[in-house]
């Protein structure tokens, strides 16, 4: 039995990945702040475990991860996905509270969940596991008015590289998937707002392609690792790494 925890699992990319893993036979712990959507997913899947949790709360993260492993015996995979957008604005108009919220969820939350996954994977028998961090196209190039999001996603890239290095002695593989415009409820809302303003909607791709890509990374043996993968809507501007 393969086990995973997915953060931000109540909607969007997190939910798509959680359901893809469940369909492939994984047992999946579902983390998000809102309990009701997690319970709804768990009600449809025998191997889904609802773990309501704020990823920015160290104590709550510790309890959620320990509860999952106590029930399932081990943790093979963390899809470290939870993240937020804050209102777009030039940097001088960005509220400090919005900056702090983005850092708390997008970077500190990623760190806290990776920290717990690493701790459990390092000490379980057999040792090891895989951590997949959700970066973003913004981890390559910025979007207009998105200083908090862009800065935190660049921080995630550094975290991924460090965990990949530090995990080697313990058979802990770490990689990152950078996603460009998966069609979710959030992005559909952005597209509708663009059309209403007389602008072209952003190019989008089916979120199921992202879930397939994550599953491909997750199914690799621990002797192999995808350090960075970019999956994006074909008609998005080129964002190759410099």
Task: Compile the SSE list and pairings.
Elements: E1 3-7, H1 12-23, E2 27-32, H2 35-43, E3 48-52, H3 58-72, E4 77-80, H4 96-123, E5 129-134, H5 147-166, E6 172-180, E7 182-183, H6 185-196, E8 205-206, H7 207-218, E9 228-232
Parallel strand pairs: 1-2, 1-4, 2-3, 4-5, 5-6, 6-9, 7-8
Overall average pLDDT:
93
Helix content: 40-55%
Distance between the termini: 40 Å
How are the strands of the largest sheet arranged? 3-2-1-4-5-6-9
Label the structural class.
alpha/beta
Count of helical stretches: 7
Biggest sheet, in brief? 7 strands, parallel
Give the overall silhouette. Answer: globular
Unreliable sequence segments: none
Give helix and strand order, one letter per element, not per position.
EHEHEHEHEHEEHEHE
Q: Got a strand count?
A: 9
Radius of gyration: 17 Å
Strand content: 15-25%
Description:
The chain is an alpha/beta fold. Helices cover 45% and strands 18% of the residues. The protein has helices at 12-23, 35-43, 58-72, 96-123, 147-166, 185-196, 207-218, and strands spanning 3-7, 27-32, 48-52, 77-80, 129-134, 172-180, 182-183, 205-206, 228-232. It is globular and about 55 Å long.
